[in-house]
Amino acid sequence: MGAVEAPLLATARNGRELVFVGNGRWLAVQGRGLEGSVDAALAEIAAAPTESARIDLSGVRGFDTLGAVVLDRLIQALEKAGVRFQIVGLERRFRPLLDEIVKGSHENPPRARHVNAVLGGIQLVGRTTVATAQDAMALLSFIGAVVAAMLRVIVRPQTFRFTSMTYHLERTGLRAVPIIALITFLIGCIIAQQGIFHFRKFGATTYVVDMVGILTLRELGVLIVSIMVAGRSGSAFTAELGSMRMREEVDALRVMGFDPNEVLVLPRLVALIIAVPLLTFIGNMCALFGGGLVAWIYGGISPEIFISRLKEAIALNTFEVGMIKAPFMAAIVGLIACMEGMRVGGSAESLGAHTTAAVVKAIFLVIVVDGLFAMFFAAIDM
Amino acid sequence: MHAELDTPAGRHEAGDIAPGEPIIRVRDIVVGFGDRVILNGLSLDVMKGEILGFVGASGGGKSVLTRTILGLVHKRSGTVEVFGQNIDTLSYEERRQLERRWGVLFQQGALFSSLTVRQNIQFPMREYLDLSPKLMDELTIAKLEMVGLSPDVAEKAPSELSGGMIKRVALARALALDPEILFLDEPTSGLDPIGAGEFDDLIATLQQTLGLTVFMVTHDLDSLHTVCDRIAALGEGKVIAVGPIETMLASKHPWVSAYFHGKRARAAGIVSEGAR
């Protein structure tokens, strides 16, 4: 073998005949080089039309699908130009592969079209509007289906899946206690610290007790717990139901005569509605404890003073306002998570999109509903 | 004659194997999960250029062996050599080089659900080859047509495809880099008999045109009968019989005998009625 490597495809003229001489390894790894030399050959054909051509491939040592596709390009161009040509020297074992490629359709279906940015933007607005309306409708019809399932269960209580409910209660309630306790404790600490730091300027340090008490019991306790539950259990519900849908498990339930809402959604929803108020209570206590601890260490308010001050600052209704909201928040998180789970399509991407949507929508709605509650309680003077 | 001409695609890379020599050499493999030992001292050779059918009872460890060879399952002891290289001692780069020389068709297809068919097939090409987009498209269409699909499947998402089409697209993806070894995990399961027959023909044709070595896990007696050069039977964590179909028929092992002389085997025409 010579030291200088022969080009993959060389073009020469032999009188009125074009001669292409192929050499070396016509393999995928040579992709760019091979395509370049074939395109050069195509340019040659276009520049100086001839009547006949010869493709000599006796020097080709390796040949794979890519080699065949590239050679096919040359063959197509020659046929199109109406040139008589013959292929010589191609090893027999490479022949079936070439035949396979040459007999292909040579179509290339267009890729999905990209619209321009402005038009795309308008389209997006339209699509989002429609999707939002559809979302609202879907939520409404899902609530209807779940309520129907609930009524059926109320009529025949023995059909309620109690075991499943306790399992979800443990997962969403009991197992969430440590993290909820830790986070609400820290929030209580932070509120107390900030309160003391700023109230000190007015010499009103003891008012920090009012602030911690009212803020956590009325608003923050239930909000923090709901948001935590949306992120922790809501996402899990969506992912579980979504993957069950992807693997046709939900369909299997349906054809066996079970209502998936009754079997899958209701136990989760009931578990959440029980768990969130309990977690809210635990969260409230931990936040008060955190606030009291910081007030004692940082603000010099002794526990006795803190407690007696707390008794004056808050009434039972402060506590009730927070607790009343808890089951509603649970229902929002549970319904949205289960609804999104039931809407998962076939792909992994869809599962991710719906899980994200479930958490984002749940947190958004929790905050909106909290605002509505605030207006409502103000109106009834509670 | 030049040595490199002897290899099917004329490739000249590390670990070239002459035809008829073992391209995969499995020795004394032990694989288990927890207390359960699945493969217990299994040894098997896959020769270059052959189609080897691998049979065994359900849950017997056929897929486990495939996954062990591919390095997806951890083995307790034993060695796996592919292209003459021990897969455990390869560096990261060597392993990458090896992995681009085999293609795998998973049982469920394992197409990337967030990519279109075209993107699925081009995925390995983008990673390993330096090709222009135009050439990559041409190559993709060529692969699709090779596996018997029309080019307009290219823009579809995997969720829009039927089971048989998913298998074909997955095969096209497995063939994207023109591999030398093709692993097929139950390629005809879930296909109707006509579709399965076509798939068998397809594999035989591809094996001839591309000079592939095929390692096929299958339950399909028709496939075993029509396309496989050799068959290996798995039992009790070992290979209990290996050879062409005649060897299987002559085997005295009760499981192998039951498998190849059963009612279904008769229906597949492997043994004639009444010949026992």
From TrEMBL, chain A:
The chain crosses the membrane at residues 136-155, 176-200, 288-307, 358-380. Coiled coil: none annotated. Residues 55-99 form the STAS domain. Pfam families: MlaE, STAS. The keyword Signal does not apply. Keywords: Membrane, Transmembrane, Transmembrane helix. Gene3D superfamilies: STAS domain. This is ABC transporter permease. The lineage of its organism: Bacteria, Pseudomonadati, Pseudomonadota, Alphaproteobacteria, Hyphomicrobiales.
